[in-house]
Each structure stands twice: as structure tokens, then as C-alpha cells.
Design goal:
It is a single chain. The chain has 105 residues and is an all-beta fold. It has one domain. It contains no helices and nine strands. The protein has strands at 4-10, 13-22, 25-34, 40-41, 51-56, 60-67, 74-80, 82-88, 96-101. The protein has a four-stranded antiparallel β-sheet, with no helix packed on it. Strands 1-2-3 form a three-stranded antiparallel β-sheet, with no helix packed on it. A hairpin with a 2-residue loop joins strand 2 and strand 3. The radius of gyration is 15 Å and the shape is globular. The mean pLDDT is 92.
């Protein structure tokens, strides 16, 4: 639909917005913020409707739905250990594989 997801780091937060064409200019729709200094964007879902990101906690990784949800960014899972990336396993966007390292491993 022509929109582009952008992420900006502001202090220790990640701000997410969608940019969209508005005639000769560009509009911006603020999606919200996540309170992590660093996040890794994952590949978009195969249907193009959702974008997820990973954030590292002390002993876990948090999986966030940053675009495509009903209310802005939302944490959807906490995974014990560390994760640094992922890949979609199906074309419907229902199965996401994450690379996971055991806690302390």
C-alpha cells in the first residue's frame, strides 16, 4: 500500500512510525514506542501485514509486534535465553522460527 515502517532511537526507546505518500509530501503515522535501547527488526510476515522485532532482556528475548497490531507495539512473547534473528517458515505468516541460545549458553 506504499507505506514504509521506520524506527528511530530516542534516548533508551525505539519509536516506530509508518510513512505514507500524501500528494507531493509525506505523512507520518506514529505507531508507538518500546522501552529498549536496542532492537532487531525481523523480516516482514509473508503477507506483508505484520512486522516483529526482538529485544534482549537480562535472561530472555522479547518478541514484539511493532506494526500490524490493533494498538501499536505490543509484546507477544518472552523467550528464555537470547535470540538474534528469525525467519518465516510458511507463506501465511503463522510460523516464525527464531535462533535461540540457551540461558547461560
Amino acid at each position: 500500500d506504499g507505506r514504509v515502517l521506520i524506527r528511530r532511537r530516542v534516548a533508551d526507546r525505539q519509536m516506530f512510525s509508518l510513512l505514507y505518500p500524501t500528494g507531493p509530501g509525506t505523512g507520518e503515522l506514529l505507531l508507538g514506542a518500546v522501552g529498549y535501547a536496542e532492537m532487531t527488526l525481523l523480516p516482514p510476515s509473508p503477507d506483508g501485514r505484520c512486522v516483529y522485532a526482538l529485544a534482549a532482556g537480562e535472561d530472555h528475548a522479547s518478541l514484539w509486534l511493532v506494526a500490524g497490531g490493533a494498538f501499536g507495539p505490543e509484546e507477544v512473547a518472552r523467550i528464555p535465553g537470547r535470540c538474534s534473528g528469525g525467519v518465516w517458515l510458511d507463506r501465511a505468516g503463522r510460523m516464525l522460527a527464531l535462533d535461540r541460545q540457551e540461558p547461560g549458553g
